[in-house]
Write a structure and sequence with these properties.
By secondary structure, the protein is mainly beta. Helices cover 15% and strands 43% of the residues. It is built from three helices and ten strands; from the N terminus they run H-E-E-E-E-E-H-E-E-E-E-E-H. It is globular.
Length: 208
């Protein structure tokens, strides 16, 4: 009988823990923001006030890692994982000259400046997953196409591609907050998402 009571308490504790984890599919994407970096070195990381890009359609993010095995005693001793960068493609409804504001390359001799990029993804439960990638460049130009009108309008979109990487200050490359899984103790994270795009968010200055 005592064993049964202990077992029941254990099941209840596990159930409570499982209820705190919320898994909800992504069903939307919005609010692309770009912030130019004025300093990105071992001494400091400084970003300008973020500026909103055009209306968001889709974000494609490909985070790349490599693995290397170290062998000893005729077996695997350790596996070393290395972050190689994040490739990102943003699809928007349209781009105006004001949207470009210096973060896209348009001449052969120019160099794209470093930027941070942020956005949020909507979940089926109505909550959002907020993200910032700390450092990268949109140096791959703009993907676009246009076609003649054939009976009905066929609106097109614009895509920009960039390569992002870890910043020099602390090797951090991304910060995010999943609104679905905030708990009562995550007060600084809850405050940060209220003004997520007012600045590039920091763990020790908005996410504590």
């Amino acid at each position: 009988m005592k064993w049964r009571n202990r077992h029941e308490r254990t099941v209840t504790q596990v159930s409570d823990t499982e209820q705190k984890i919320v898994r909800s599919r992504t069903c939307g994407c919005r609010d692309f923001y770009i912030a130019k970096l004025t300093q990105n070195d071992a001494k400091a990381y400084v970003a300008e006030t973020p500026v909103k890009l055009a209306r968001a359609i889709k974000a494609k993010v490909d985070e790349k890692w490599s693995s290397e095995k170290i062998y000893s005693d005729d077996g695997t001793e350790e596996v070393i994982n290395s972050y190689e960068g994040t490739e990102i493609e943003l699809e928007v409804n349209a781009l105006a000259p004001q949207d470009r504001h210096g973060f896209l390359v348009k001449t052969a001799d120019d160099k794209a400046p470093e930027v941070a990029v942020g956005w949020r993804e909507r979940k089926l439960n109505g909550k959002y997953d907020f993200k910032w990638l700390y450092a990268g460049k949109f140096a791959e130009g703009i993907s676009e196409e246009a076609s003649t009108k054939e009976g009905k309008l066929s609106p097109t979109t614009k895509s920009i591609k960039g390569s992002f990487y870890e910043r020099s200050l602390d090797n951090a490359y991304e910060i995010s907050v999943d609104e679905s899984n905030l708990v009562s103790g995550d007060t600084k994270a809850a405050e940060a998402i209220k003004a997520w795009f007012s600045k590039v968010q920091e763990k020790n200055g908005g996410l504590g």
